[in-house]
Amino acid sequence: MTIRRTGEEECHYDENEEEAFTLRVHHHGRFNEAKNEYIGGEVTYFDWVCIDFLSLLNLDVIAKDLGYRLPLSYYWKEYGENVEYEQEVEDAAMEDCVDPTSYWEQSFEIPEMASEDRDGSESDMHLSEGELNSVDGSEEERRHTPWVRKTYPEFNAETDLKDPKFQVGQVFASADLFRKAVRAHALKQRRAVVFEKNDPNRIRVGCKSENCGWQIFASILSEDRRTFKVKTYTPLHTCAMVFKNGFVNSNMLGRKYVNQWRVNPDWNFAGFAQQLRDDYSVDASLWQYYRARKHAKKLIEGTVKEQYARIWDYCAELRRMNPGSTTQVKCSLDGDIPVFQRIYICLAALRKGWLEGCRRIIGLDGCFIKGQHRGQLLTAVGVDPNNQMYPIAYAVVETENRETWQWFLELLKVDLNINNSHGIAWITDKQKGLIDAITDLFPNSEHRFCVKHLHNNFKVYHKGLLLKQTLWGASTAATEQRFAQKMAYMREVSASAYEWMTDKDPRHWSRAFFKEFPKCDMLCNNYCEGFNSAILEARDKPIITLLEMIRNYLMKRMAKKRVEVDKWHHLVGPKVFKFIEKVKLETSGCHSDFCGNNIFQVRNFEQDQFVVDIQNRTCACRRWQLVGIPCVHAMCVIMTSNMDPIQFVDDCYKKDRYKLAYDPVIYGLNGPSMWPQTGDTPIRCPEFKKQRGRPRKARKLQSDEVRQDGTTRLRKNYVLIHCRRCGQVGHNKKRGRQQKKTPK
Predict the structure, then answer these.
(1) Among the listed residues 377, 381, 402, the one whose alpha carbon sits nearest the alpha carbon of residue 391
(2) Which residues of 665-694 are buried (b: 16+ CB within 10 A; e: fewer)?
(3) Out of 61-70, 271-280, 472-481, 612-621, which region has the weakest mean confidence (pLDDT)?
C-alpha cells in the first residue's frame, strides 16, 4: 500500500491485480448538510490496497500514515444504511474536522474504492465518486436510494441493569449510568475489571488480567454534553472468573437489596449472607451487613438532617389531607436558624371520635425515643366503648419535665375544648412534673395514679407478697368501709408500710374515693403502655418516619375497627359481653329478696348484704356506679327476674357510641415529592452527643418481672449465693476455685 497525494500520477493496475484497488480518504475538512457534501480539507489516495487488508481495525494504520494520533473516528457508507465506526478523537489537530456525533440525516462520501476485473469491467468493490453502491443493488436503486441514518440502541436502566449487554454505538443517558452498567456486568460475569480512565468526558475500562483483551471505551456526545456512547468494545473475556470483587461493597449492597429491607426491616445477617452467596458467589462480613443495612435505611427513610429540614412541609401536608388537625412545632433559634425542640400532633378524626364516643378519662404517659437524636414521646390515650385504648394526641419533646408536660397539656386542653375540669379524669404514672402540670391546668379534675407504679415504689422499702396483696386489696376496695378494713390489716402486718401509705392521698389510688361519672374504675395506666408497645418499632426511626409510622398505625386501626363493629353479635362489644358473662358465673353464691319499688336485698356467700336499686341502677357495693355494668349483686337480681343484662349496661358501652368513636377517617398522605412547599426556613436537627458503649434499646425489667422471650428460669435477684466448697456468701464453687488460683 502506497500513499499518493492530489495531483500526483494515478496508479494503473494490471489484469492480474484483481484484488488491489485505490482508497480515497477525505480528512481535515467539514461536512455541509445543506449541500450534502464534504467541504475543504485534504484528499489522500492509498494505492495497492488489498481487499483482505481493509478492515475497521486496520484503518488505524492509514490514520497513522496521515499523521493523526489514535483513536479516531471513521466514516463510510453502504447501500441502504449509514455505517460509522467511531473512536475518541484525542488529537488537537482534529478539532476542525467534522463532528462525528453531530446530527445529520444524510451521509457524506469519503472513500472511492475502485478496481477492475480482468476483463476491464468494474468489480463489485467499485465505489463511484457520487455515492457508495450496494453489492446486490441495481443501478436504479443505487441512483435513487436515500441515505439512512443508523439508529443506535439505548441502554434502559430499569430493564438492562440486571444483565448488561454492550455493543459499539450504544448510548447511555449519563456517565453514572455507564459506570453502573460496567459494575453490574463485572458482578454478573464475575470478572475483575478496572477503570483505566474515568473522567467526566471519557471512560475506559479494561480487565485486570494482563492476558485478557476485554475492554470498553465510551465518551460524551457534543450535542448535549451528557449522553455517553460506546466507541470501542472488545467483548471476549479470556481471563478466569473471580469470587472476590471490589465492587461488592456496602453501598452497592445497600442499593441492591433496598427493596428487601423495605419489605422486611428485620432481614437478618444469615438471610443477607445467603442471598449474597446466591447472587454473586461471595461472602459478606457482619460489619458489611451492618453498613449495607444502614445505607439501605438512608435510601428508604432519608437522612436524619433531611427529615428535620422537611418538618414544615410534612405538617402542611398533614393539615391539608386531614382538615382540622392540629400540628404545633416549637424550635429554638441559633442565630436565624431554627433548631428542633418539640412537635405536637392531634388528628381531627381522633379528636372528634373521642369527643363523641368515648368516656371522659384520659391516660398520660411518656416513653423514650431510641433513635440517633434522643427524646421523649408524650401520649394521651382514652378508653373506647369496648374497653380498649383510644389514642388522642402525641408529641415528640426533648425531655420529660414540667415545662414539656404543661406545653403538651395546654395544646390538648384547647383541642378537646376542656373548659370545666370537673368533668374529666386523668390517670398517670408519677412522671416528672406531670402532677404539677395537671394541678395547674385542671385543678378540679380527678387525678388517679397507676397502682402498679405505686407498688414499685412501695416494694423498695416494704417487700413481701402479703404486703403487696394488702396494698392491692385497699386499692380495689370500692367502699370507704372496705378500704378502712384493708388499711387496718396493713397496719397490723407492718406499721412502717401503713405509715408510708398514709402519706399518699387515697383519692389518687383507691376506688373507694373515685368519682362515678367516668364509668371507669381502672387502676393501671395499661392503655398508654399498650400504645407505647404498639409503636415500639417506630421509636428508633428518624423524626418524620416516626410520626408517619404512628399515623399509619392509627389510620389502619381506625379502619379495622370500623369493619369489626359490623361483626358484633350483641349491642355491646366483645370484651364487655365477655365481662358480663363472667359476672353471671359469680352470681351462683348470691341470693336476692324483693323489697318493693324495684329495690332488692342481695346476700352473697360471704354473708354480706347489699341493697340494689334496679330503677336507679345503683348498688351499695358501688361497683355498678363506678363501671356502668351491673355488678354481681345487680346481676343476681337481673337473672332472677329474667331480664336482659345488656339493657342495664350504660350507654357508653353500646354499639352506637362505638360507631361514633370510629366513624371519623384518618386520611393518607402523599409521598414527600407531593408535599406542599411552605418556603419556611428548614429546621436543623438538635445536637447529638454520642454516648459511650452500645446504645440500649431494651427496657430495664423490674426485679420481679418475668421476661417475655420464652425464658423458663427466673433471674436470681436478691438471692444470696453460697459456695458449696467453702460455705461463704457471694460466690459459687467455680468462682471460688478461680479466686483460689489467683496469685496473691
Answers:
(1) 381
(2) ebeebeeeeebeeeeeeebbbbeeeeeeee
(3) 61-70
Cell numbers for 580, please give them: 358480663
**496 phi/psi in degrees, rounded to 5:** -65, -40
State the Cα–Cα distance between residues 459 and 477, nearest whole angstrom: 20
As separate numbers, helices (DSSP H) first and strands (DSSP E) second, the chain gives 24, 23
Give the span between the Cα atoms of 272 and 258, in whole angstroms.
12
Q: Which amino acid is at 268?
A: N
Task: Give residue for cell 376506688.
Answer: 511
Length of the chain measured in residues: 744
φ/ψ of residue 283, rounded to 5: -100, 150
H helices present in 565-603, as ranges: 574-586
DSSP character for 408? H
| pLDDT single digits (tens) 557-566 | 999 999 999 9
The greatest distance separating any two alpha carbons of the chain, rounded to the nearest whole angstrom, comes to 142
Percent of the chain with pLDDT over 90: 47
pLDDT, position 178: 94
Angle (deg, nearest 10), helices 632-640 and 574-586: 80
Question: What does 111-171 look like in DSSP terms, one character per residue?
Answer: ---B-B-TTS-B-TT---SS-PPPSS--HHHHHHPPP-PPPPPBPPHHHHTTS----TT-E
Residues 6+ apart with CB under 8 A from 274: none
Q: Characterize 131-164 residue by residue with b for buried, 16 or more Cβ atoms within 10 angstroms of its Cβ, and e for exposed.
A: ebbeeeeeeeeeeebebeeeeeeebeeeebbeeb
Least Cα distance to 344 among 377, 310, 390 occurs for 377
Of 555, 554, 561, whose CA–CA distance to 658 is shortest? 561
C-alpha distance from residue 712 to each of 18, 81, 705, 719 (Å)? 97, 80, 13, 17
The residue type at 146: P
Q: Which grid cell is 51?
A: 481487499
Mean pLDDT, rounded, for 586-605: 91
Sign of torsion, CA 238 242 246 247?
A: positive
Kindly report the number of other CB atoms within 10 A of residue 435's CB atom. Answer: 18
Check residue 634 and give its pLDDT: 95
Q: Are 296 and 272 in contact (CB under 8 A)?
A: no
* pTM for this entry: 0.69
Q: Can you read off the three cell numbers belonging to residue 511? A: 376506688
CA distance 122 to 21: 11
Cα 196 to Cα 171, 210, 231, 420: the distances in Å are 20, 13, 15, 78
Who wins on pLDDT, 212 or 70?
212
Cis peptide before 71 (omega within 30 of 0): yes
84-111 core/surface letters (b: 16 or more CB in 10 A; e: else): bbbbbbeeeebeebbebbeeeeebbbbb
Cα end-to-end distance, the chain, whole Å: 97
For residue 343, list its beta bridge partners: 329, 396
Q: What radius of gyration, in Å, describes the C-alpha atoms of the chain?
A: 43
Smallest CA-to-CA distance from 167 within 157, 149, 181, 180 is with 181
Query: How far from 25 is each of 42, 277, 285, 624, CA to CA, in Å?
Result: 8, 54, 59, 108
**484, amino acid identity:** A
- Written as one string, the DSSP assignment of 434-453 is HHHHHHHH-TTSEEEE-HHH
Give the rounded percent of residues in the chain with a pLDDT score beyond 70. 78
Q: What is the pLDDT of residues 32-63, one digit of tens each?
A: 655 556 666 778 877 777 766 566 566 777 77
Q: Which residue in 664, 410, 703, 396 sits closest to 555, CA to CA? A: 664
> Which residue type, as a one-letter code, is found at position 674?
M
546-556: pLDDT as tens digits: 999 999 999 99
Q: How much is the average pLDDT of 452-472?
A: 91
As given in the structure block, the three cell numbers for residue 742 are: 489467683
